[in-house]
Amino acid sequence: VTRYTAITHADLKAMLAAIGVASVEELFARQVPEAVRLRRDLDLPPGMAEQQVYALLRGLAQRNASTEDEVSFLGAGMYDHYVPALIDMLCERSEFLTPYTPYQPEVSQGGLQVMFEYQTAVSELTGLPVANASVYEGPSAVAQAAYMARLRHGPGRLVASAGLHPHTLQTLRTHARGFGCEVVEVPLDPDGSGRTGLAAWRAAVAGEAPFASGEAPIAAIFAQPSFYGVVEDAPALCAAAKEAAAQAPRGAVGRADAAPLREAGPSRRAGDGPDACQPSAAAPGAPPLVIAQVDPITLGILRPPGACGVDVAVGEGQPLGGRLDFGGPSFGFFAARSELLRAMPGRIAGETRDADGRRGFVLTLQTREQHIRRERATSNICTAQALNALAGLVYLVWLGRHGIVELGRLLLARTQYARQALCAIPGVAPLHAGPVVRELALRLDADVGRVRRRCLAEGVNPGADLEALTGRPEDRGGLLVAITERRSRADIDRLAALLRAALPAARAPRPAAQPADGPLPRAAGEEPEEEQPRLSDPQPHGLPRAGAGGGALARAGHTHASAPRRRP
Amino acid sequence: MTAPAAPRDDRSADPAALRPDEAVLTIFERGAPGRRAFACPGLDVPAVEPAEAIPAHLLRAEPPRLPEVSEPEIVRHYVRLSKRNFDLDSGFYPLGSCTMKHNPRLHERLAALPGHARLHPLQDPERAQGALELMWRLERALAEISGLPHVSLQPSAGSQGELAGALLTRAYHADRGEDRDVVLIPDTAHGTNPATVAMAGLRTVTLRSDEHGGIDLEDLRAKADERVACLMLTNPNTLGIFDPNVTEIARIVHDAGAILYYDGANLNAVMGISRPGDMGFDIVHFNLHKTFTQPHGGGGPGAGPIAVSERIEPYLMVPRILRRDDGCFELRESGFERSIGRLRGFHGNYGTFVRAYAYICSLGASGLRDVSEAAVVNANYLLARLAQRGLAEHLPRAYPGLCMHELVLSGAPMKRNLGIRTLDLAKRLLDFGFHPPTIYFPLLVDEALMIEPTETETKETLDAFADAIAEILDEAARDPEIARSAPHTTPVRRLDEARAAKQPVVREALGAAP
Question: What is the pTM of this model?
């Protein structure tokens, strides 16, 4: 009997008798062939008492530097916003925490109404009339939107701005290879604004040089603001995509192939023919879907994607009251024009009436989904991020109609202040000239890794090393600095002072023969750095003894270069 | 157990106990202009008008029409809403293939520690050693449990784990210069399997089940040709049956040059008993939110890590977690030229890793085995109880014999004999305080009920559930209308799903649509 099971010796005797077997072993021996039985114990340590497990995992937590341990300007997709206590309290309630997907609506009205309210909030925020009840997170939400384009338009090209998050571009490529689409990356404008190059964007959609292609453009995808923090001219990108598609060679656009991705072979089941009910096919010659990956916290200030001409707005929901959680779980939001409702992935809650005529909510349009439509489903997604979406909803309600604007203005003002304060430092310049709203990219005339380590030693995480994230040579010296309401003017001033002090020492050139992942050599005049704290050596089977794994928080100052330095 | 009165008009069983109109107001229909819950921190930098910083045509003209409510209103609204949910902490929730086991609260406490919850995913690896070590240790534990040496924790849920598996399969065959595009899927499979296959640009060929509920070997032999990329199998399958021919299935599939994929949705039945790797599988996904007890959150979050064999390893997603010779851990993206890439942002649903790892530490090797044993004992006991009461004439087992962690009954005789459908039985169970089982799945069983009690339920609960079913059938013999019009005690009665789908209303109307 473990502490989470309840079969006593007496229970077991009675239960086995009722089943009609002599032992638990017989129960398995009669079902699981001996050849595939594991005739040894799993090579894992014995179980532990609750307090030992607590001590072990608390020890691991203490070896992480959280945003409580340092002043963090890290962003690049997830942000250290303040999470109101209200969210913890509501998300910890058993009634929200422990139900399954609401398959029985009569006893799931709470969760279903939350989904309905969430969909309303996302729709309001994005300015698009319909939203689903969540997908996994930001980058895969973009891939889901691209799959929607693939199902509606048939195979073709996905035109993607270089201003998308590198994880989004990588995720999109992985998924697109699967469903048979090519990803064409459009570079940033050579004018230095940091915006997507409009001429290249047009050419990529139209399939003109240097993006010449006979494949139809089925989606055009950009980020607002971009990964670099720059506010894109979203209406211009939307208009250009639609215009360029009209200029694309006839026949190259919109094959309206809504059939399964591969043609059926002889082994196909009878009755699997093209589905007359498939609701999502685009008309021949239809323009590509314009998909925007949006930072929701900026939408109190920035023009909503729906008003810019965007067809599908998706994004990472973590800024809306989500924990950082080292990258997940969070939620992805997904909103679209009305005619795309039946092509959407994931759960959708809808309003209806009960047998007595009272208002109620159900999961609706389920014929889109995998458990009904199977290989012709709009997605394979089932379990998504309902609890995280609840947090997002409560956060938006907490901010309220005016709060989201006030918060957006505060972030904007502090971001402008940070740009001025930081770019006043010799050797620091904005990486791009375009407008920024809550995050900004700097170019340091110094080794970013060394500058970062100097700042970390003082308890300030100055932001993300851009080149390490994108692998782009033009991002060398780039530092991406995120602003939240938790980063005060005093914090920004402190970052400025640290950069001012760190830059001269970090400007010394690196020796030429630098091993890619080896330790960084010390520059002349740089003080010796502290040794890496020794970690307790884990046992080979992967689980520690009770009480092991404590150790001090990895202190600032390190001799090891952080992985990953480069992209493949 | 006393049967709840039926039908009745009094709604006192509705814990929210509100006036009907008040009960269904959304948050958008509450509040008043000027109310607020948020106090913005004061401006400590020079004020900037948005139009000074950003071109006017890129600015929002009107604030989004979010609610204007006070904090007390928010709390009351959502606490009341929560009471209109049935939840695992309140009662038995035997959804088949969903593994609704108890969620230890220790896990919530641990996941909320700032070192876990407030750790930025781009934190320098040397300042996130605890997190990386936790992930590495979880990977090692999952490798041992599955019998497959290499693990990626990245997939966000089981369905994304499946997609990873399908893409890995493609990459493996493409690398060998083979063009294989068929995925064999049994007719008992979860709907995610064929949906995943389509997303990966492959196509599904369905395998028949034999008279025992396993794969029909003749059908498999006929279809296992040089175009087959992969067989996706859940074992035990959705009928709760461990395929007795699994080694022969593996031999046929491998002889055809294809990959074997294990859908780990039902892994709860076999931890420490039998390992997918030892059965011959190349890829397995875990549903951490099932087997490793994540709270389901009303529909997520979950996580769907995968474990793979040596031959699949080169194609695994990036980033990978490496343990260096000096005992430190790193995240590495470079140097994996054959990797399929990345399936999502950052490193996966770390918060679920904390909980899953805590669970494995709590139980240890023998505890995990105890879990599977208890899950199978509970399922078979419930099966016996349902037969013992003489219910089998109405609700027979879909396939004879013992079961693993779940059982599938057919309500077809009940429909014929008593005039109530599986749906009616399910709805009437709500009045008895039980969440119904999964219904109308698997598809090959007429009027199916798929029951997974899990190991965390007591014998008394299983007895009470069996008694409730017996009572509902007795009641239906007297008056089938009670079940047909059930539920009678829930906050709302049966909802008109056809209406919802026909004229979809998927958001609150706030005047003109945006």
Answer: 0.92
